[in-house]
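Bench notes, afternoon.
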Amino acid sequence: MSAPLAELLQLLTLEQLELNLFRGASRDIGSPQVFGGQVLGQALRAAYCTVDDRLAHSLHAYFLRRGDFRAPIIYEVDRSRDGQSFSSRRVVAIQHGEQIFHMAASFQHPEEGFSHQLAMPEVPPPEALPDSRTLIEARGVKLSPAAQRFRGRDSPFEFRPVDPQDPMTPRACAPRQDVWFRAAGKLGDDPREHHCLLAYVSDYHLLGTAMRPHGCTSSSPGVVVASIDHAMWFHRPVRVDDWLLYSMESPSAAGARGFARGSLFSRDGVLVASTAQEGLIRVEPGLLPKG
């Protein structure tokens, strides 16, 4: 296992303070706020700490305030209901005495039923594509040590985009993208660990997809980007240490918000999870198109 992946697993390991109260550390990734995926993964881990023999099938979250990466985050879990087949949890994340995030998650005892899925897009295999870290270095992009932990050589994940963009000089293109990714090392067999890691990494690329038609990225001058909400559905067993295809599209951007949704496929074409996200994409007035 790589050192960055081991560090991320430690980040997703929470300290239990009381029966339903947990504390998580934060991580500097070179942005002004805590990465949304970190809070998603930690909140899901906190909920899992209160659930026995059931696995998450969905979560719905809102980001309320910027998280401070210099301070720990407290997660309070409300055990809303434990039924015969389903358990419901509500998690509130608190920093400096204020709510910064809340999430509702549902867990189900495994059952058999009907099964169908959408087909995976036809894309090149990951071995035929360059690693995004190699692309960043080849373009001479200088990343801070903190940003290296998010996108560079110290990232806990490998990413191989099908149609990569230069973050410094992006071009306008269709509002969709496909990215192969996997954890940078072998993991154990605990499905809860894979779910928390998948929640973490699912926050990559979605809002970037909504910006592709406008020829900008989160690094573009005059652009402010932040997640507003995030939803996720776990359909089938998943391993984050095997290649997964994140296929994303953005049906709409309006009102300084961008909306994107994604499908996550295993290497053999099995749809393992789906996501949806809306985020703030605020642009300086002078950069908006005329008319």
